[in-house]
Each structure stands twice: as structure tokens, then as C-alpha cells.
From TrEMBL:
<comment type="similarity">
    <text>Belongs to the short-chain dehydrogenases/reductases (SDR) family.</text>
</comment>
<dbReference type="Pfam" id="PF13561">
    <property type="entry name" value="adh_short_C2"/>
</dbReference>
<dbReference type="InterPro" id="IPR002347">
    <property type="entry name" value="SDR_fam"/>
</dbReference>
<protein>
    <submittedName>
        <fullName>SDR family oxidoreductase</fullName>
    </submittedName>
</protein>
<dbReference type="InterPro" id="IPR036291">
    <property type="entry name" value="NAD(P)-bd_dom_sf"/>
</dbReference>
<dbReference type="InterPro" id="IPR057326">
    <property type="entry name" value="KR_dom"/>
</dbReference>
<feature type="domain" description="Ketoreductase">
    <location>
        <begin position="8"/>
        <end position="192"/>
    </location>
</feature>
């Protein structure tokens, strides 16, 4: 049986760990060849590449710091050149700087907005030169853009809320070209950045309707749906995979 993404090429930013790793491997399971970017941890990125190749897919990783505009654009073009095409783009790379408003430095603001807002914009800008009819752009947001459940998240929430406007506007602009653009808002997900046994885990768990952390594969399943046949008529949507955090 032909896999749903057979013959497609996907680029996942921040694909060496956590949600990004789960997304890259799920897309590979569904038949896509996968390119991924990473900032640190070349060994982790190489492991994801090896896992994707073990699934019978081509895979490739490139270092690109989201705060480096040139590196971000170059990574997209290099991925398209490496595989000869580009069909699915997942803007997953992001950072979080949390803390009281008074303690946030201008340097914190600059880096968070560079990585979480400017980089996805630049990835989209570079990718549309390669995406054709049926192309998919999937941005990874956050439940904190949907609900301010606790203090200290103003900068991170600001950056992820910006993706709502970007997603809707690009869906409208790129729709006539047959390219869909959607946004996935993960809730508390058990990753290195936000472990289910971390200091704030009990609070975050209590804020969900299901009373538990999610797993990276649960976010990846929704991304895969949007990237596959099931996502053909979905665009401009923001889908929460948050266990009811925003309910």
C-alpha cells in the first residue's frame, strides 16, 4: 500500500528533539523524505536522520539558528536542493523565556521574537518559492496563545500569538496557489523543555481538562493529518492539541 506522503518532501525546523523529532519521524512513517534543522545537538539530529532512514526514507539535517536570518533562509533552499522539491513545511523551532515582566531584558525580547516570529516568517517566505499546488505550511504555536492561565508568560505568549495572524493571513494569500497554512497549538507536552516531572508540571497538569501531559506523538498525529489527504480542505485553522487547557 502506498503511504499517504509517498514521494513528498517535508522540512521540520527544530526537528532534532521533542515535538519536532516526533513530527519528523511521523511524516517519515507516512512516506515523506525529511529534512530537519537544529541549533544544538548534532548527535541528536543525526539520530533522528538515522531513524528516518531506517524507515526507508531519505533524511538530512542542517544546523540553523533561528536567530540567524541568513541561516534560516539558506536552510530552506538547501533542503529543496537536497531533495529536488519541497511539499510540507513545519515551523516547529522555538524558544521560551519565562519570568516576571520587570525581569525580561531587551535581549530576551529580541531573541524570542527572532526565533519564534521572524524565523517562521522567513521560512514561509523562502518556502513559497518551492511549494506548489498541494503544498502545506504548518506552524507550531502554543496553548499560551489561547489562554493566559498563569503569570510570567507574557513574552512567550506574545511570540506565539503572532503566529495566529501570520497563519490566517498566509492562508488567504496562498490559498489561490493551492497551498494550505495551518496552526497547531500544543498544550503541556512531555519534552526535554517541559518535562512531565518538572517543577511546574503539577500546575500545568491541573489546568488541562484531561488532567495529564500530552506526548509528542499526539501533536505529530495532528500535524500528519494536516500534511496528508485529510488536510486538503483545512486552511487558516488553529487546532489545539492541549488536553483541554484552553477549554
Amino acid at each position: 500500500m502506498t503511504a499517504v506522503l509517498d514521494g513528498k518532501v517535508a522540512l521540520v525546523t527544530g526537528g532534532s528533539r521533542g515535538i519536532g523529532e516526533a513530527v519528523a519521524l511521523r511524516l517519515a512513517e507516512d512516506g515523506a523524505d525529511v529534512a530537519l534543522t537544529y541549533r544544538d545537538g548534532a548527535e541528536r539530529a543525526a539520530e533522528v536522520v538515522d531513524k528516518a532512514r531506517a524507515l526507508g526514507r531519505r533524511a538530512w539535517a542542517v544546523r540553523a539558528d533561528g536567530a540567524d536570518a541568513s541561516a534560516v533562509r539558506e536552510a530552506v533552499d538547501r533542503a529543496a536542493a537536497e531533495f529536488g522539491r519541497l511539499d510540507v513545511v513545519v515551523n516547529n523551532a522555538g524558544i521560551g523565556v519565562l519570568g516576571p515582566l520587570e525581569g525580561l531584558r531587551p535581549a530576551d525580547v529580541d531573541r524570542v521574537l527572532q526565533v519564534n516570529v521572524r524565523a517562521p516568517f522567513l521560512v514561509c517566505q523562502a518556502a513559497v518559492r518551492h511549494l506548489g499546488e498541494g503544498g502545506r505550511i504548518i506552524n507550531i504555536g502554543s496553548c499560551m496563545a489561547e489562554r493566559a492561565a498563569f503569570g510570567g508568560g507574557s513574552l512567550y505568549a506574545l511570540s506565539k500569538t503572532a503566529l495566529i495572524g501570520l497563519t490566517g493571513s498566509l492562508a488567504r494569500e496562498l490559498g489561490p496557489r493551492g497551498i494550505t497554512v495551518n496552526l497547531v497549538h500544543p498544550g503541556p507536552i512531555d519534552t526535554d523543555m517541559n518535562p512531565a516531572d518538572g517543577p511546574s508540571a503539577d500546575l500545568q497538569r491541573s489546568l488541562t481538562a484531561l488532567g495529564r501531559y500530552g506526548q509528542p506523538w499526539e501533536v505529530a498525529a495532528t500535524v500528519a493529518h494536516l500534511a496528508g489527504d485529510g488536510g486538503r480542505y483545512i486552511t487558516g485553522a488553529a487546532i489545539s492539541v492541549d488536553g483541554g487547557f484552553a477549554a
